[in-house]
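[Discussion] Sanity-checking designs against the backbone

I'm trying to build intuition for which residues belong where. Below is a C-alpha cell string of 170 positions. I'd appreciate it if someone posts a full sequence so I can compare it with mine line by line.
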C-alpha cells in the first residue's frame, strides 16, 4: 500500500499527467477526485475512460476536506491499494496553499500501519510536478539511474529508506 501525495495542484490536468506517469512505473492506483468532477455526467465518463487507458486507475469521488473521506482513503490503504491524493484540495489558484485538514493524520496513520508515503512535488530529488509549460508534466530531476523504473523497485527503495530512518519521495 502506498499513499501518493501530489503538490502543487494548480491544473485540472495534474491528475491525468500523474496517472500516465504511474503507468510508466507500474503502479495502478485509486485517485481521490473532487465529487463535482467525479459525478459530472460528462467529466466522470472521460476521467474513468482515461484512468482505464492510462494504466487501469480508478476514480473515487471524495471531498478530502471531510473526515469521512480520509477514513475511506485509510480503508483503501488497509486493503493494500495505492491511493493518489492532492492534499491541497481544490482551489487551483494558489500553488503555495497549505494542505487540507486531516492530511497529516492520514500520512501519520499510513506510516504507523507500515505503509508507504510518496511525494510528487516541486523540487524533489526524483520527480517534479512542473507547471512551467502549457501543459503540466512529471519531470525527472535527477539522473535516470536514480529514478524508480517499476513499482517493485519503488517499494524496495522505500523499504531501505525506512530502515535507515529516511522517507521516500516519488
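Best answer:
Here's mine. Compare freely.
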Amino acid at each position: 500500500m502506498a499513499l501518493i501525495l501530489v503538490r502543487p495542484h494548480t491544473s485540472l490536468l495534474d491528475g491525468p499527467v500523474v496517472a500516465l506517469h504511474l503507468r510508466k512505473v507500474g503502479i495502478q492506483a485509486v485517485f481521490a477526485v473532487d465529487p463535482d468532477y467525479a459525478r459530472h455526467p460528462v467529466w466522470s465518463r472521460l476521467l474513468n475512460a482515461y484512468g482505464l487507458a492510462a494504466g487501469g486507475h480508478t476514480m473515487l469521488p471524495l471531498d478530502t476536506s471531510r473526515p469521512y473521506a480520509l477514513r475511506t482513503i485509510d480503508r483503501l490503504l488497509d486493503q493494500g491499494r495505492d491511493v493518489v491524493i492532492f492534499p491541497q484540495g481544490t482551489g487551483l489558484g494558489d500553488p503555495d496553499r497549505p494542505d487540507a485538514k486531516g492530511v497529516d493524520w492520514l500520512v501519520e496513520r499510513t506510516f504507523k500501519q507500515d505503509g508507504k508515503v510518496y511525494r510528487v512535488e516541486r523540487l524533489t530529488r526524483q520527480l517534479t510536478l512542473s507547471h512551467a509549460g502549457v501543459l503540466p508534466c512529471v519531470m525527472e530531476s535527477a539522473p535516470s539511474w536514480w529514478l524508480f523504473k517499476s513499482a517493485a523497485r519503488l517499494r524496495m527503495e522505500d523499504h531501505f529508506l525506512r530502515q535507515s530512518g529516511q522517507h521516500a519521495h516519488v
